[in-house]
Structure formats: C-alpha cells, structure tokens
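User: Could you go from structure to sequence for me? I need the amino acid at each position, not a summary. Structure tokens:
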C-alpha cells in the first residue's frame, strides 16, 4: 500500500521470510530498518498477525485499520458459518 506505520521494535525472535515459501502465509508488513517480517496473513483462512502492539504509539488510532479488518473478518466468518448451518 505504500503506507508506513511507526512501531516500537524489540523482538527476541523473528520469522525467516524464506520459511514461508510453499505455505499459505504471505508477508504483509516488513520493518524498514532491518527487513524483518512484522506481519503475516493466511491466504485462505481468516487469520492475520502483526508483531507489534497496534494499540500503542505513535497514536491510538494509527492502526485502527487492523482492528477494522479483524472485525470484518469475524463478521464474514460468522455469516459463512450461519449459511453452512442453515
């Protein structure tokens, strides 16, 4: 997207991006300072992750898009489950 999120980084570990080859995971966020993976998304399942605190600094609403995306994913998943069980 070209968007940059300012985050605090202090990891004791990180994901080797090459270990994601031939998986259903894709990288969504990369740290500009060292190239480490900061976010993942599953290509098929309603799952994603970031390796920082989206509710923290620099501002409490800067990463609201992640919470919005999570809520949308859960609503969509619930609707699919409802249709399957109908």
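Assistant: Here is the amino acid at each position, in order:
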């Amino acid at each position: 997207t070209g968007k940059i999120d300012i985050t605090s980084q202090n990891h004791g570990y990180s994901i080797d991006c090459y270990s994601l080859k031939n998986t259903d995971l894709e990288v969504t966020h990369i740290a500009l300072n060292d190239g480490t993976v900061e976010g993942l998304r599953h290509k098929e399942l309603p799952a994603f992750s970031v390796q920082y605190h989206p509710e923290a600094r620099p501002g409490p609403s800067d990463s609201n898009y992640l919470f919005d995306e999570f809520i949308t994913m859960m609503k969509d998943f619930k609707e699919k489950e409802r249709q399957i069980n109908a």
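One structural detail worth keeping in mind: The helical segments are 64-85.
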